[in-house]
Every structure is written in structure tokens, then in C-alpha cells.
Amino acid sequence: MLRFALLFVLFGSVAGFGQDPAQDSSSQPAPEPAAIVPVSSEVVEAEAAIAQSDWKAAESRLTPWLAEHPTDERALFAAGYVADAQGRMQDAATLYRRATEANPKSFEAHLSLGLLLARQGNPEDARPELVIATGLDPGDAGPASKASAWRALATIDEKSDPTEASNDLLEALKISPETDADTLMAANLADRAGQYEESETAYRRVLAKDPKSLVGNTGLAHSLIAREQFPQAETMLRAALEQLPDDPALTAQLAAVLAAQNKAEALPLLNKLHEAHPEDPNITRMLAEVLAEAGDAAGSDKLYVGLLASSPDDPVLLTGHGQNLIEQARYPEAFAALDKATKLDESSAEAWSGLAFAASKTNQPAVTLNALTMRSKFLPEGPSTYFLWATAYDTLQDKAAAASYYHHFLETAAGKFPNQELQAKQRLILLENKK
């Protein structure tokens, strides 16, 4: 029986061609001999034409044969491969599926159908086919092809279930050597799982082979930044930029690292990057944040307003915008922006903090208390929030609660808020009727 391997581009996999049902080594009973369609000379000739990429010759043999033998799994798979190679994806999917129905134990048919569906952006339907393939004997296709099924599953699972993706990848590595793509995937999965030491190790292995790997460099930087190893990240990024000068992703990471260390170089670096990529929202957002940290609330807010024009319901942008408005004493506008941000994302401690302050400045003590209550679910109290609690209760004439929070404020302020400390002491005298 003529057998040969056919390459599939997706996931760098190789799928074997035309497994004979009689060669299945599973424990289930083999089909009755009468159900097996003999390999015809037409199919053999079609396979030989496929080996030469002569699609027309292959079709001229397969089309009449399938008209008379519509359940010949080997012919269906060959016809599916021809359609696949010619870019007729729907025809290929139909033929591959017919091949799986003709022989549910065909490793090649399930694998090829799964890979095709994945290439078409249909992971929901691709995954079951690939799962079936991983449980079948690959026959002449060999363990490398079975490993390709596991790798394809890992790629599908990577976004939705990193743990399952890791298990898929481990299964592939049990039966085939590790590839550079495997190392990158392992690094990415560790990164997403917060296993930054493991991801750093994997990214360094990638860079040992290819120092100019952009994915490797940006991934390693992310691992270091996530662990707040800013000096190490800065050193690594400067070295990477010598290999990949002016790369926007690496430059943006360097700017972020410099900003985290309060280094003045961050702002001009981001300005330069923004001038080179004015339409990049990520760079614009970073520049807006750094400008705000540098005290340029007006300059920062111009960028936030521009970003909000295209993303009006982004709670992070609304929060940054609201905080800038507070810095400019535009409290009613700040309240509106931060109120919207908290409605869009109830888990944003920064938005709740800003809303509490804006509500206080617009004389809405009940809103202040609610915002402080929500904020306390995510962040500990401090002098600033104690003072807001106290003044809100004071405005609502809840003397006991106001006095309690004024005391908390004075206990933690430690002379850092002299004006508010004086106000708190004066209010306590009145609230507690002290002379």
C-alpha cells in the first residue's frame, strides 16, 4: 500500500496520509472485512499525483471514484487534502468530515479536520476533532503528527484555559522534542499564570538561541517588570534595544520601567515615542499617565480626552480623566467621569477613591460614604480616607461617627496634613464639647 507524509503548515505540524483501518491497534473490534473498501488503482494514482502537487490529475482520478464509492475513507481524505491545498476550505472540511464518518478511527482525517477548522478561526469545532485525534493511533504518521495534535490543542486552550494548555503541551513534549515555539508557549503560559520566575527562565532560553527575538525580549521584560525588578528590566531592555533599535514595544517598556523608578528620562522618551506613533493608543495612554505623575494634569488630560473620543466607556481612561479634572479643581466634571467609571467597573479602587473625593468637593456626603465603603473592599484605609469619612459624617451631623474618624485621622496623619489636622482638632472640640 502506498503511504507518504503530507505537510500541514498550521502549528508547524506534519500529518500522515491515509491510515488503513485494518492497522488500527486499539482494543475495539476491527470492522468486518466486507466493510473495508480495497485501495483502488485510481486512489493510488491520485496519491502519486498529490505527491507531485498535480491537483488536477489527482482530482481526475478521485472525482469519478468517489461518485461510485462515496464512503471510501482514503479517497475522501485524499480529496480533502487536494481541496485544502487549493484553498477550497469549505470543500476540504466537508470531505475531511466525510472521511471521519466513513472511518471514525482515522487519525489523519480527525487531525486534518481539526487543523483546518482552527485555521478558519473556529476553535469550538476544531477542539473536539483534535481531542479525538490525540486518542487515536497515528499509524504511519508517527508520534510527531500526534504531537502536532497536542500542540494545536495547546494553542486553542492557551487563551481560555492556560492550565489545560500547559497539560496539552506536556503531552506533546512526551513524544517529540521541544521546539522554539514550545519554549515560547511555555513562557507565555507561565507568565499568564503569574509564575514569573518560570517564565523568565523560559524566555532566557529563547533569547540564548535568538538574542533578537522580539517576543522573547518583550516577554522577559514583562516578567521582570511584574516582579518589580525595575533595575534588571532596565538593563535588559537597554541591551535589547541595541539589538533592535527604536522598536516601539521595547521602547515603551523601557519608558514604563523608567517611570516606575521616577527617572526623568521617561518623559522625553515617551514624548519621542508618541511623536513617532501618534495613533498608538497604548503609547498615548502611557504618556498620559507619566504626564499626570509629573504634575502636568492639563497636558495629560488632553491625551485622555483624545483616547476617550474613541473609547468612551473605558473605565481606566475615565478614571485617569477624572483624576486630572480633580487636580484642576474641576470637581463637577470629575464627579461625572468617576461616577461613570465606577458604574462600568465596580472593582476599580482608584475610581472609587477619586469619586469619594469629588463627591466631598461637590457636597454629596452620602455618595462619599458609599464610595469609601466600596473602596475599602480593595484597599486599606489611610489618613486621606479617614478624613473623608470624618467630614462626610460631620456634614450628615453624625457626631459619634465623625469624631471617631477624626481621631483615626489624627492618629495616622503624623503631621503630614497640617491644615486638615488643625481642622480635625477644632471639629473634635465642638463635637465632643471640649473647652
Characterization of this structure:
This protein is mostly helical and 435 residues long. It has three domains: 159 residues, Serine Threonine Protein Phosphatase 5, Tetratricopeptide repeat (Alpha Horseshoe); 100 residues, Tetratricopeptide repeat domain (Serine Threonine Protein Phosphatase 5, Tetratricopeptide repeat, Alpha Horseshoe), CATH 1.25.40.10; 56 residues, no CATH class. The protein has 23 helices and two strands. A two-stranded antiparallel ribbon has the order 1-2. Strand 1 and strand 2 form a beta hairpin. Helix 1 packs antiparallel against helix 2. The longest helix is centred in the middle third of the chain and has 19 residues. It is elongated and about 105 Å long. The N terminus is likely disordered.
* Structural class by helix and strand composition: mainly alpha
List segments where confidence is low: pLDDT < 50 over at least 5 consecutive residues. 1-35
Largest sheet: 2 strands, antiparallel
Helices, by number, come to 23
Q: Any idea of the CATH class of the largest domain?
A: Mainly Alpha
Number of self-contained structural domains: 3
Q: Nearest-angstrom radius of gyration?
A: 32 Å
> How would you write the strand order of the largest sheet?
1-2
Shape: elongated
SSE series: EEHHHHHHHHHHHHHHHHHHHHHHH
Strand share of the residues? under 5%
Q: What is the terminal separation in angstroms?
A: 107 Å
What fold name stands as the CATH topology of the largest domain?
Answer: Serine Threonine Protein Phosphatase 5, Tetratricopeptide repeat
Number of strands: 2
CATH architecture of the largest domain: Alpha Horseshoe
According to CATH, the homologous superfamily of the largest domain is Tetratricopeptide repeat domain
Overall helicity: over 70%
